Amino acid sequence: MQKKKKHPSDFYKKLYKAFCIYTNIDPKAADTQSTVRLIFISQSAPDIKKQLQRLKEAKKKSLEELVSVATIYKIHKKKYPKDQQETKRDPQVHLALKKTVYSCLLNSKAALSTVTTKPKEKSLTNKNIPVMGIGKKPFYCSILQKATVKISNISVSHAFLLEPNSPVNLLGKNLLYKLRAQIFFSNNKIIVWLPQRQLPQLCAALT
């Protein structure tokens, strides 16, 4: 069982070693991947296990993808401990993509903007691009059709990436540049300005 403070990648390495030492299962073999996936999920820490079980087609995900999802969740959860959730929250912005409204985490460190679900309208293209996740391993994201994004009364045209394994939607650098957004820090708050317009809903307590 994964210990509470153990990193998902370290837990996987320990699990891999246990397979090699105590069983006749080759954890790298294609015909044993489903068994290794099942044990990795079932032996993960309870909160991570719950997140992995919620994944669509979790049984078809590669072990690298499962470790990446577990890592993203652990880092995101660690950022705001449970006893601080009453006083601190992630800076969020609400935007409309076509007719679907999303709540996105403001993340100026993220190069690209992503959503975890498609808009209600048909919007998926047949294109995808490689991206580098927190686990430092590249994976592919599908590109949505370019569409009008509305934030407050400001509209721009943008193509989001679809990343269903991410725990949150992300408002990253590429869309912030298009919006000509300026970010200020004042009185323990984040204030985001767009040309001639302040977005008060983006003000949030800093960690």
Structural class: alpha+beta
Mean pLDDT: 77
Number of domains: 2
Q: Any idea what the shape is?
A: elongated
Protein name: Gag polyprotein
Organism: Chelydra serpentina (Snapping turtle)
Domain Peptidase A2: 102-175
InterPro entries: Gag_P30, Peptidase_A2_cat, Peptidase_aspartic_dom_sf, Retroviral_Gag-Pol_poly
Description:
- This protein has a 5-stranded mixed beta sheet with strand order 7-6-1-2-9.
- With 207 residues, the chain is of the alpha+beta class.
- It has 2 domains: 72 residues; 87 residues, Acid Proteases (Cathepsin D, subunit A, domain 1, Beta Barrel).
- The longest helix is centred in the middle third of the chain and has 17 residues.
- β1 and β2 form a beta hairpin.
- The chain has 5 helices and 12 strands.
- The chain is elongated and about 65 Å long.
- Pfam families: Gag_p30.
- It comes from Chelydra serpentina (Snapping turtle).
- This is Gag polyprotein.
- Keywords: Hydrolase.
- GO terms for molecular function: aspartic-type endopeptidase activity.
